[in-house]
Design a protein that fits this description.
InterPro entries: MATE_fam, MATE_MdtK, MdtK-like. The chain has one domain (7-449). By secondary structure, it is mainly alpha-helical. Helix 1 (7-42) packs parallel to helix 7 (160-182), helix 10 packs parallel to helix 13 (354-370) and helix 15 runs antiparallel to helix 16 (420-446). It has 16 helices and no strands.
Amino acid sequence: MTQILSRPAHARALLALGLPLVGSHLAQMLLHVTDTVILGWYGVTELAAVVIGGSSFFVVFILGSGFAQAVMPLVAQAVGRGEEAEVRRATRMGLWLSILFGVISYPLFWWSGAIMELLGQKPEVAAHAQVFLRIAGLGMVPALLVMTLKSYLAALERTQVVLWVTVGAVFLNGAICFALVFGRWGMPEMGVAGAGLASLSVQIFTILALGVYAGWLPELRHFRLFQRFWRPDWHALRWVFRLGLPIGLTSLAESGLFQASAIMMGWIGTVELAAHGIALQIVSLGFMVHLGLSNATTVRTGRFAGAQDWGNLRRGGAIAIALSAGVALAQVALYLGLPGPIIRLFIDARSAEAPQILAFGAVLLAVAAAFQFLDAAQVLALGLLRGVHDTRVPMWIATVSYWIVGIPASYLLAFKAGYGGPGLWAGLVIGLACASAALMARFWLRVPRGYSAA
Protein backbone atom coordinates (compact mmCIF):
# COMPACT_ATOMS: atom_id res chain seq x y z
CA MET A 1 0.00 0.00 0.00
CA THR A 2 1.32 3.45 -0.94
CA GLN A 3 2.29 5.65 1.99
CA ILE A 4 0.29 8.88 2.20
CA LEU A 5 2.68 11.80 2.66
CA SER A 6 2.02 14.27 5.45
CA ARG A 7 0.72 17.74 4.65
CA PRO A 8 4.07 19.38 5.57
CA ALA A 9 5.89 16.90 3.33
CA HIS A 10 3.58 17.74 0.44
CA ALA A 11 4.06 21.47 1.07
CA ARG A 12 7.86 21.17 1.17
CA ALA A 13 8.00 19.12 -2.02
CA LEU A 14 5.60 21.47 -3.81
CA LEU A 15 7.55 24.58 -2.78
CA ALA A 16 10.91 23.01 -3.67
CA LEU A 17 9.63 22.40 -7.19
CA GLY A 18 7.34 25.40 -7.44
CA LEU A 19 9.38 28.32 -6.07
CA PRO A 20 11.96 28.24 -8.90
CA LEU A 21 9.04 28.07 -11.35
CA VAL A 22 7.39 31.01 -9.61
CA GLY A 23 10.67 32.90 -9.86
CA SER A 24 11.09 32.08 -13.54
CA HIS A 25 7.51 33.13 -14.32
CA LEU A 26 8.01 36.39 -12.40
CA ALA A 27 11.24 36.99 -14.28
CA GLN A 28 9.50 36.23 -17.58
CA MET A 29 6.79 38.70 -16.68
CA LEU A 30 9.41 41.27 -15.74
CA LEU A 31 10.53 41.19 -19.36
CA HIS A 32 7.17 42.72 -20.30
CA VAL A 33 7.08 44.96 -17.24
CA THR A 34 10.48 46.35 -18.21
CA ASP A 35 9.16 47.24 -21.66
CA THR A 36 6.11 48.88 -20.08
CA VAL A 37 8.19 50.96 -17.66
CA ILE A 38 10.65 52.09 -20.33
CA LEU A 39 7.92 52.97 -22.84
CA GLY A 40 5.94 54.64 -20.05
CA TRP A 41 8.82 57.07 -19.66
CA TYR A 42 9.13 57.45 -23.44
CA GLY A 43 5.56 58.44 -24.37
CA VAL A 44 1.90 57.68 -23.69
CA THR A 45 1.06 56.75 -27.30
CA GLU A 46 4.08 54.46 -27.49
CA LEU A 47 3.15 52.93 -24.15
CA ALA A 48 -0.41 52.26 -25.33
CA ALA A 49 0.98 50.70 -28.54
CA VAL A 50 3.30 48.32 -26.69
CA VAL A 51 0.49 47.46 -24.26
CA ILE A 52 -1.83 46.44 -27.10
CA GLY A 53 1.01 44.96 -29.17
CA GLY A 54 2.46 42.98 -26.30
CA SER A 55 -0.93 41.63 -25.28
CA SER A 56 -1.62 40.66 -28.91
CA PHE A 57 1.68 38.77 -29.10
CA PHE A 58 0.79 37.05 -25.84
CA VAL A 59 -2.62 35.93 -27.11
CA VAL A 60 -1.04 34.21 -30.12
CA PHE A 61 1.76 32.83 -27.96
CA ILE A 62 -0.62 31.38 -25.40
CA LEU A 63 -2.50 29.45 -28.08
CA GLY A 64 0.71 27.97 -29.46
CA SER A 65 2.09 27.24 -26.00
CA GLY A 66 -0.60 24.61 -25.45
CA PHE A 67 1.67 22.09 -27.20
CA ALA A 68 4.57 23.12 -24.97
CA GLN A 69 2.42 22.87 -21.85
CA ALA A 70 1.23 19.41 -22.88
CA VAL A 71 4.83 18.22 -22.63
CA MET A 72 4.83 18.78 -18.86
CA PRO A 73 2.11 16.29 -17.82
CA LEU A 74 3.11 13.83 -20.56
CA VAL A 75 6.72 13.75 -19.36
CA ALA A 76 5.69 13.69 -15.69
CA GLN A 77 3.40 10.68 -16.17
CA ALA A 78 6.02 8.92 -18.30
CA VAL A 79 8.56 9.37 -15.49
CA GLY A 80 5.98 8.10 -12.98
CA ARG A 81 5.55 4.96 -15.11
CA GLY A 82 9.31 4.60 -15.70
CA GLU A 83 9.00 4.96 -19.51
CA GLU A 84 12.09 6.91 -20.54
CA ALA A 85 11.52 6.69 -24.30
CA GLU A 86 8.14 8.42 -23.94
CA VAL A 87 9.89 11.41 -22.33
CA ARG A 88 11.98 11.96 -25.45
CA ARG A 89 9.15 11.33 -27.90
CA ALA A 90 6.71 13.77 -26.28
CA THR A 91 9.28 16.55 -25.92
CA ARG A 92 10.57 16.27 -29.49
CA MET A 93 7.12 16.48 -31.00
CA GLY A 94 6.30 19.38 -28.69
CA LEU A 95 9.29 21.17 -30.22
CA TRP A 96 8.12 20.27 -33.74
CA LEU A 97 4.62 21.66 -33.14
CA SER A 98 6.05 24.81 -31.58
CA ILE A 99 8.14 25.54 -34.68
CA LEU A 100 5.21 24.90 -37.01
CA PHE A 101 2.86 27.14 -35.06
CA GLY A 102 5.41 29.96 -34.81
CA VAL A 103 5.93 30.01 -38.57
CA ILE A 104 2.26 29.99 -39.58
CA SER A 105 1.31 32.69 -37.04
CA TYR A 106 3.74 35.36 -38.27
CA PRO A 107 1.43 36.89 -40.93
CA LEU A 108 -0.85 38.05 -38.10
CA PHE A 109 1.98 40.23 -36.81
CA TRP A 110 2.93 41.55 -40.24
CA TRP A 111 -0.59 42.88 -40.90
CA SER A 112 -1.39 43.68 -37.26
CA GLY A 113 -1.91 47.41 -37.85
CA ALA A 114 -4.88 46.89 -40.17
CA ILE A 115 -6.33 44.26 -37.85
CA MET A 116 -6.13 46.61 -34.86
CA GLU A 117 -7.78 49.47 -36.74
CA LEU A 118 -10.62 47.11 -37.68
CA LEU A 119 -10.95 46.36 -33.96
CA GLY A 120 -11.40 50.05 -33.18
CA GLN A 121 -7.90 51.11 -32.12
CA LYS A 122 -6.72 54.65 -32.88
CA PRO A 123 -4.60 54.80 -36.09
CA GLU A 124 -1.49 56.18 -34.36
CA VAL A 125 -1.60 53.44 -31.70
CA ALA A 126 -2.19 50.73 -34.33
CA ALA A 127 0.73 51.98 -36.46
CA HIS A 128 3.18 51.92 -33.56
CA ALA A 129 1.92 48.49 -32.46
CA GLN A 130 2.53 47.11 -35.97
CA VAL A 131 6.13 48.35 -35.94
CA PHE A 132 6.65 46.58 -32.62
CA LEU A 133 4.97 43.33 -33.69
CA ARG A 134 6.70 42.97 -37.05
CA ILE A 135 9.99 42.69 -35.14
CA ALA A 136 8.88 41.00 -31.93
CA GLY A 137 6.78 38.49 -33.90
CA LEU A 138 9.97 36.94 -35.28
CA GLY A 139 10.56 35.76 -31.72
CA MET A 140 7.47 33.54 -31.65
CA VAL A 141 9.34 30.38 -32.70
CA PRO A 142 12.15 30.74 -30.12
CA ALA A 143 9.61 31.79 -27.46
CA LEU A 144 7.58 28.61 -27.98
CA LEU A 145 10.70 26.44 -28.07
CA VAL A 146 11.73 28.00 -24.76
CA MET A 147 8.32 27.15 -23.31
CA THR A 148 8.64 23.53 -24.45
CA LEU A 149 12.08 23.10 -22.91
CA LYS A 150 10.88 24.72 -19.70
CA SER A 151 8.06 22.17 -19.51
CA TYR A 152 10.48 19.32 -20.19
CA LEU A 153 12.94 20.47 -17.52
CA ALA A 154 10.19 21.21 -15.00
CA ALA A 155 8.71 17.72 -15.41
CA LEU A 156 12.19 16.34 -14.68
CA GLU A 157 12.37 18.67 -11.64
CA ARG A 158 15.22 20.69 -13.18
CA THR A 159 13.73 24.07 -12.37
CA GLN A 160 16.75 25.97 -11.04
CA VAL A 161 18.30 26.47 -14.46
CA VAL A 162 15.00 27.77 -15.83
CA LEU A 163 15.00 30.39 -13.08
CA TRP A 164 18.55 31.61 -13.59
CA VAL A 165 18.39 31.74 -17.38
CA THR A 166 15.17 33.77 -17.18
CA VAL A 167 16.65 36.14 -14.60
CA GLY A 168 19.63 36.69 -16.89
CA ALA A 169 17.23 37.43 -19.74
CA VAL A 170 15.52 40.14 -17.66
CA PHE A 171 18.76 42.08 -17.22
CA LEU A 172 19.72 41.60 -20.86
CA ASN A 173 16.31 42.81 -22.03
CA GLY A 174 16.41 45.86 -19.75
CA ALA A 175 19.79 46.94 -21.05
CA ILE A 176 19.00 46.39 -24.74
CA CYS A 177 15.51 47.91 -24.51
CA PHE A 178 16.71 51.05 -22.69
CA ALA A 179 19.58 51.56 -25.13
CA LEU A 180 17.49 51.10 -28.28
CA VAL A 181 14.31 52.91 -27.18
CA PHE A 182 16.09 56.07 -25.99
CA GLY A 183 19.21 55.83 -28.15
CA ARG A 184 21.78 55.50 -25.37
CA TRP A 185 25.34 54.10 -25.26
CA GLY A 186 25.90 54.82 -28.93
CA MET A 187 22.73 53.07 -30.12
CA PRO A 188 20.15 54.74 -32.42
CA GLU A 189 16.87 55.96 -30.90
CA MET A 190 14.30 53.46 -32.19
CA GLY A 191 11.29 53.87 -29.88
CA VAL A 192 8.85 50.96 -30.11
CA ALA A 193 11.02 49.24 -32.74
CA GLY A 194 13.82 49.12 -30.17
CA ALA A 195 11.53 47.38 -27.69
CA GLY A 196 10.64 44.79 -30.35
CA LEU A 197 14.29 44.18 -31.21
CA ALA A 198 15.17 43.77 -27.53
CA SER A 199 12.40 41.19 -27.13
CA LEU A 200 13.62 39.21 -30.16
CA SER A 201 17.24 39.25 -28.95
CA VAL A 202 16.28 37.94 -25.53
CA GLN A 203 14.19 35.08 -26.96
CA ILE A 204 17.16 33.95 -29.06
CA PHE A 205 19.51 34.13 -26.06
CA THR A 206 17.13 32.10 -23.89
CA ILE A 207 16.55 29.26 -26.34
CA LEU A 208 20.28 28.89 -26.95
CA ALA A 209 20.99 28.72 -23.20
CA LEU A 210 18.25 26.21 -22.41
CA GLY A 211 18.98 24.15 -25.51
CA VAL A 212 22.62 23.71 -24.54
CA TYR A 213 21.62 22.74 -20.99
CA ALA A 214 18.89 20.29 -22.02
CA GLY A 215 21.02 18.64 -24.70
CA TRP A 216 24.41 18.35 -23.07
CA LEU A 217 23.97 18.20 -19.28
CA PRO A 218 25.49 14.81 -18.33
CA GLU A 219 22.53 13.87 -16.11
CA LEU A 220 20.10 14.42 -19.02
CA ARG A 221 22.09 12.99 -21.93
CA HIS A 222 20.53 9.54 -21.58
CA PHE A 223 17.24 11.02 -22.86
CA ARG A 224 19.02 11.81 -26.20
CA LEU A 225 16.62 14.69 -26.73
CA PHE A 226 18.09 16.10 -29.97
CA GLN A 227 19.42 12.87 -31.48
CA ARG A 228 17.87 12.45 -34.97
CA PHE A 229 15.62 15.39 -34.18
CA TRP A 230 14.55 15.67 -37.85
CA ARG A 231 12.84 12.25 -37.80
CA PRO A 232 9.05 12.49 -37.41
CA ASP A 233 7.18 10.47 -34.80
CA TRP A 234 3.60 10.70 -36.03
CA HIS A 235 2.07 8.79 -33.13
CA ALA A 236 3.72 11.06 -30.55
CA LEU A 237 2.87 14.12 -32.67
CA ARG A 238 -0.83 13.23 -32.55
CA TRP A 239 -0.47 12.49 -28.85
CA VAL A 240 0.95 15.94 -28.04
CA PHE A 241 -1.45 17.69 -30.42
CA ARG A 242 -4.57 16.08 -28.92
CA LEU A 243 -3.57 17.01 -25.39
CA GLY A 244 -2.02 20.37 -26.26
CA LEU A 245 -4.66 21.92 -28.49
CA PRO A 246 -7.31 22.01 -25.74
CA ILE A 247 -4.72 23.45 -23.35
CA GLY A 248 -3.89 26.20 -25.84
CA LEU A 249 -7.55 26.95 -26.49
CA THR A 250 -8.26 27.05 -22.74
CA SER A 251 -5.42 29.52 -22.21
CA LEU A 252 -6.59 31.47 -25.26
CA ALA A 253 -10.08 31.75 -23.79
CA GLU A 254 -8.68 33.30 -20.61
CA SER A 255 -6.04 35.51 -22.22
CA GLY A 256 -8.58 36.49 -24.88
CA LEU A 257 -10.83 37.74 -22.08
CA PHE A 258 -8.11 40.16 -20.99
CA GLN A 259 -7.18 41.05 -24.57
CA ALA A 260 -10.81 41.85 -25.33
CA SER A 261 -10.84 44.04 -22.24
CA ALA A 262 -7.78 45.90 -23.59
CA ILE A 263 -9.51 46.44 -26.93
CA MET A 264 -12.67 47.72 -25.23
CA MET A 265 -10.60 49.94 -22.94
CA GLY A 266 -9.03 51.41 -26.06
CA TRP A 267 -12.53 52.48 -27.12
CA ILE A 268 -12.77 54.50 -23.91
CA GLY A 269 -9.49 56.38 -24.37
CA THR A 270 -5.69 56.25 -24.69
CA VAL A 271 -5.02 57.31 -21.09
CA GLU A 272 -7.47 54.68 -19.85
CA LEU A 273 -5.79 52.04 -22.02
CA ALA A 274 -2.38 53.01 -20.62
CA ALA A 275 -3.71 52.74 -17.04
CA HIS A 276 -5.36 49.42 -17.88
CA GLY A 277 -2.04 48.12 -19.22
CA ILE A 278 -0.19 49.13 -16.07
CA ALA A 279 -2.82 47.64 -13.74
CA LEU A 280 -2.88 44.45 -15.77
CA GLN A 281 0.91 44.17 -15.61
CA ILE A 282 0.74 44.49 -11.81
CA VAL A 283 -2.00 41.88 -11.51
CA SER A 284 -0.17 39.58 -13.94
CA LEU A 285 2.96 39.69 -11.79
CA GLY A 286 0.91 38.36 -8.89
CA PHE A 287 -0.68 35.75 -11.12
CA MET A 288 2.77 34.35 -11.94
CA VAL A 289 3.00 33.04 -8.37
CA HIS A 290 -0.18 31.04 -8.81
CA LEU A 291 0.92 29.88 -12.26
CA GLY A 292 4.22 28.57 -10.87
CA LEU A 293 2.39 26.67 -8.13
CA SER A 294 -0.03 25.34 -10.76
CA ASN A 295 2.84 24.08 -12.92
CA ALA A 296 4.43 22.36 -9.94
CA THR A 297 1.05 20.84 -9.13
CA THR A 298 0.77 19.51 -12.69
CA VAL A 299 4.14 17.79 -12.37
CA ARG A 300 3.39 16.24 -8.98
CA THR A 301 -0.14 15.27 -10.00
CA GLY A 302 1.25 13.69 -13.16
CA ARG A 303 3.80 11.68 -11.17
CA PHE A 304 1.11 10.44 -8.74
CA ALA A 305 -1.31 9.67 -11.58
CA GLY A 306 1.36 7.72 -13.45
CA ALA A 307 1.90 5.64 -10.31
CA GLN A 308 -1.89 5.38 -9.66
CA ASP A 309 -1.35 7.02 -6.26
CA TRP A 310 -4.71 8.78 -5.87
CA GLY A 311 -4.47 9.43 -2.14
CA ASN A 312 -1.29 11.50 -2.43
CA LEU A 313 -2.65 13.15 -5.56
CA ARG A 314 -5.72 14.44 -3.72
CA ARG A 315 -3.84 15.53 -0.60
CA GLY A 316 -1.16 17.28 -2.67
CA GLY A 317 -3.86 19.13 -4.59
CA ALA A 318 -5.46 20.40 -1.41
CA ILE A 319 -2.11 21.69 -0.11
CA ALA A 320 -1.44 23.50 -3.40
CA ILE A 321 -4.82 25.24 -3.24
CA ALA A 322 -4.22 26.33 0.36
CA LEU A 323 -0.80 27.80 -0.47
CA SER A 324 -2.21 29.68 -3.45
CA ALA A 325 -5.07 31.09 -1.35
CA GLY A 326 -2.55 32.47 1.15
CA VAL A 327 -0.73 34.29 -1.63
CA ALA A 328 -4.03 35.71 -2.93
CA LEU A 329 -4.83 37.13 0.51
CA ALA A 330 -1.51 39.00 0.56
CA GLN A 331 -2.17 40.36 -2.92
CA VAL A 332 -5.58 41.71 -1.91
CA ALA A 333 -3.96 43.63 0.94
CA LEU A 334 -1.30 45.04 -1.40
CA TYR A 335 -3.68 46.21 -4.12
CA LEU A 336 -6.01 47.89 -1.65
CA GLY A 337 -3.30 49.35 0.58
CA LEU A 338 -0.61 50.62 -1.80
CA PRO A 339 -2.06 51.27 -5.27
CA GLY A 340 -0.47 54.69 -5.80
CA PRO A 341 3.17 53.80 -5.03
CA ILE A 342 2.94 50.69 -7.21
CA ILE A 343 1.50 52.53 -10.23
CA ARG A 344 4.08 55.35 -9.94
CA LEU A 345 6.81 52.83 -10.74
CA PHE A 346 5.42 52.58 -14.28
CA ILE A 347 5.04 56.24 -15.28
CA ASP A 348 6.80 59.58 -15.36
CA ALA A 349 5.05 61.41 -12.50
CA ARG A 350 5.87 64.75 -14.20
CA SER A 351 3.82 64.01 -17.31
CA ALA A 352 0.50 65.76 -17.85
CA GLU A 353 -1.38 62.47 -17.97
CA ALA A 354 0.12 61.06 -14.74
CA PRO A 355 -2.68 62.16 -12.34
CA GLN A 356 -5.35 60.60 -14.58
CA ILE A 357 -3.42 57.36 -14.97
CA LEU A 358 -2.81 57.15 -11.20
CA ALA A 359 -6.45 57.74 -10.31
CA PHE A 360 -7.87 55.37 -12.92
CA GLY A 361 -5.27 52.67 -12.22
CA ALA A 362 -6.03 52.74 -8.48
CA VAL A 363 -9.71 52.08 -9.17
CA LEU A 364 -8.81 49.15 -11.43
CA LEU A 365 -6.54 47.63 -8.77
CA ALA A 366 -9.39 47.83 -6.27
CA VAL A 367 -11.55 45.80 -8.65
CA ALA A 368 -8.62 43.42 -9.22
CA ALA A 369 -8.53 42.70 -5.49
CA ALA A 370 -12.01 41.19 -5.88
CA PHE A 371 -10.87 38.46 -8.27
CA GLN A 372 -7.56 37.31 -6.73
CA PHE A 373 -9.00 34.20 -5.06
CA LEU A 374 -11.01 33.38 -8.18
CA ASP A 375 -8.04 33.67 -10.51
CA ALA A 376 -5.89 31.58 -8.16
CA ALA A 377 -8.57 28.89 -7.93
CA GLN A 378 -9.09 28.53 -11.67
CA VAL A 379 -5.39 28.23 -12.53
CA LEU A 380 -4.75 25.71 -9.73
CA ALA A 381 -7.72 23.64 -10.91
CA LEU A 382 -6.35 23.65 -14.45
CA GLY A 383 -2.96 22.48 -13.16
CA LEU A 384 -4.57 19.60 -11.29
CA LEU A 385 -6.69 18.55 -14.26
CA ARG A 386 -3.78 18.72 -16.71
CA GLY A 387 -1.76 16.46 -14.44
CA VAL A 388 -4.34 13.74 -15.06
CA HIS A 389 -4.60 14.58 -18.79
CA ASP A 390 -8.06 16.14 -18.52
CA THR A 391 -8.00 19.04 -20.99
CA ARG A 392 -11.05 18.87 -23.26
CA VAL A 393 -13.89 19.55 -20.83
CA PRO A 394 -11.88 22.31 -19.07
CA MET A 395 -11.49 23.94 -22.48
CA TRP A 396 -15.28 24.18 -22.86
CA ILE A 397 -15.69 25.38 -19.28
CA ALA A 398 -13.20 28.19 -19.89
CA THR A 399 -14.73 29.14 -23.24
CA VAL A 400 -18.24 29.43 -21.82
CA SER A 401 -17.13 31.21 -18.65
CA TYR A 402 -14.98 33.82 -20.37
CA TRP A 403 -16.64 34.36 -23.74
CA ILE A 404 -20.31 33.59 -23.11
CA VAL A 405 -20.40 35.09 -19.61
CA GLY A 406 -17.37 37.30 -18.94
CA ILE A 407 -16.96 39.37 -22.12
CA PRO A 408 -20.68 40.16 -22.54
CA ALA A 409 -20.82 41.12 -18.85
CA SER A 410 -17.83 43.44 -19.33
CA TYR A 411 -19.41 45.10 -22.36
CA LEU A 412 -22.80 45.56 -20.71
CA LEU A 413 -21.40 46.95 -17.47
CA ALA A 414 -18.90 49.25 -19.21
CA PHE A 415 -20.97 50.67 -22.06
CA LYS A 416 -24.64 49.93 -21.48
CA ALA A 417 -24.78 50.39 -17.72
CA GLY A 418 -22.34 53.32 -17.94
CA TYR A 419 -19.70 52.12 -15.46
CA GLY A 420 -16.82 52.54 -17.93
CA GLY A 421 -13.46 50.95 -17.09
CA PRO A 422 -14.39 49.71 -13.59
CA GLY A 423 -17.50 48.03 -15.04
CA LEU A 424 -15.37 46.45 -17.73
CA TRP A 425 -13.13 44.89 -15.06
CA ALA A 426 -16.16 43.82 -13.01
CA GLY A 427 -17.14 41.64 -15.97
CA LEU A 428 -13.78 39.90 -15.62
CA VAL A 429 -14.69 39.05 -12.03
CA ILE A 430 -17.93 37.43 -13.17
CA GLY A 431 -16.21 35.32 -15.84
CA LEU A 432 -13.48 34.16 -13.46
CA ALA A 433 -16.06 33.25 -10.81
CA CYS A 434 -17.84 30.91 -13.23
CA ALA A 435 -14.60 29.29 -14.39
CA SER A 436 -13.11 28.73 -10.94
CA ALA A 437 -16.29 27.16 -9.52
CA ALA A 438 -16.81 24.79 -12.46
CA LEU A 439 -13.16 23.71 -12.77
CA MET A 440 -12.76 23.03 -9.06
CA ALA A 441 -15.99 21.05 -9.03
CA ARG A 442 -14.80 18.95 -11.99
CA PHE A 443 -11.56 17.98 -10.28
CA TRP A 444 -12.93 17.16 -6.84
CA LEU A 445 -16.01 15.32 -8.09
CA ARG A 446 -14.07 13.09 -10.48
CA VAL A 447 -10.63 12.29 -9.12
CA PRO A 448 -11.64 11.00 -5.65
CA ARG A 449 -13.69 8.24 -7.30
CA GLY A 450 -10.78 7.05 -9.42
CA TYR A 451 -10.01 9.00 -12.54
CA SER A 452 -11.14 8.11 -16.05
CA ALA A 453 -10.65 10.81 -18.71
CA ALA A 454 -13.69 11.71 -20.81
